[in-house]
Design brief:
- The chain is of the alpha+beta class.
- It folds into two domains: about 60 residues, no CATH class; about 220 residues, RecF/RecN/SMC, N-terminal domain (Glutathione S-transferase Yfyf (Class Pi), Chain A, domain 2), CATH 1.20.1050.
- It has ten helices and twelve strands.
- A four-stranded antiparallel β-sheet has the order 1-2-3-4, with no helix packed on it. Strands 5-9-10 form a three-stranded parallel β-sheet, covered by helices on one side.
- The longest helix has about 35 residues.
Length: about 325
């Protein structure tokens, strides 16, 4: 909630407010080396939101998010492989946001320009207008080119880390990542591609090419891995992708991450979870994992990990085991 202002379960924040209450408040203290930061977020049933960083009001969720990189590993983590392109775009942008300080502003300007162009296409463009009449195209191409370049540069550095991490989790699995620009390339080439799409854009009142249609291709031996992997294998790839983001944030942004694991033990066998935790324990991040069953019974080796602590939650009371 502090990192993204929403739950990974549902965007309906009102379900998180205690029955009979008008709001909820979440606070955290982040300690790194000699520094300490205090974060707070309050949301009311009325929709009003208050953000604080070191007791000072903040306007944007991103002001908190950049101080608290949170990665989630959920039972449906394999959707990163099997799901649609939008899932991979959001995942990619979360990583770029934390290592490229200009990304958020460029991304916002692109989305704003895209929204304005789509509104213009719906309201004013028709069969008598041409792409030369498009007032939003120059800005769309400029911001789109910068956005794509940032994403591609990130993938260039990130993909080898994913491959290396995956080899530690499952040596028999290999995957390559490739970024597709969404039907555009550099500005000059994009002008031609946008011209080719003009009639279609006008007909449907929306922009069909650009970074908002980009894709991160996950392949093995030139084939999409979504067509060949089991759900367990896909979850291993997803876990490798998430851990690789943690590694890159440590390297590029000097950020210490928090990893949240829901339903520990789901879909992977004991050996793969042990390999996963071994890698995770080397990444200098805080890990919070949940399980319906006592972990120390099924995964006794967890106690061998550094700084391992286990808690039991019952009827709202938390006690260390």
């Amino acid at each position: 909630m502090l990192s993204r202002a929403r739950s990974f379960r549902t965007p309906k924040y009102t379900s998180l407010i205690r029955t009979g209450s008008d709001d909820f408040l979440v606070r955290a203290t982040i300690k790194e080396a000699a520094s300490e930061r205090r974060l707070a977020l309050q949301r009311q049933k009325t929709g009003k939101t208050a953000l604080r960083l070191n007791s000072e009001s903040q306007v944007k969720v991103s002001d908190l998010a950049k101080h608290l990189p949170v990665h989630t590993i959920l039972p449906d983590a394999s959707n990163l492989v099997f799901g649609g392109p939008s899932i991979r775009r959001v995942f990619l942008d979360w990583g770029v946001f934390h290592v490229e300080h200009l990304f958020l502003e460029v991304s916002r300007r692109y989305r704003r320009t895209l929204s304005q162009r789509n509104a213009w296409l719906k309201q004013e463009a028709n069969e008598r207008t041409s792409i030369k009449d498009d007032p939003w195209l120059p800005a769309l191409l400029t911001y789109g080119d910068r956005l794509n370049a940032m994403r591609e540069q990130y993938i260039t550095v990130y993909a080898p880390i994913v491959a290396q991490t995956l080899s530690q989790l499952s040596p028999d699995l290999t995957v390559t990542l490739r970024y597709h620009w969404g039907g555009t390339q550099n500005i000059e080439a994009s002008q031609q591609r946008m011209a080719e799409s003009w009639a279609r854009d006008v007909k449907f009142g929306t922009t069909h090419r650009g970074p908002h249609r980009s894709e991160v291709f996950m392949e093995a031996a030139g084939m999409p891995i979504a067509e060949t992997l089991s759900r367990g294998q896909a979850k291993l790839v997803s876990c490798a992708a998430i851990l690789a983001q943690v590694v890159l944030m440590n390297q590029e942004a000097a950020s210490t991450s928090v990893v949240l694991i829901d339903d520990f033990g789901a879909e992977l066998d004991d050996e793969h979870w042990k390999r996963f935790c071994t890698v995770l324990s080397t990444l200098n991040c805080q890990v919070i994992a949940t399980s319906a069953a006592p972990l120390n019974q099924q995964y006794s080796w967890l106690r061998e990990l550094p700084n391992y602590r286990e808690f039991h939650v019952e009827q709202g009371l938390i006690a260390e085991v």
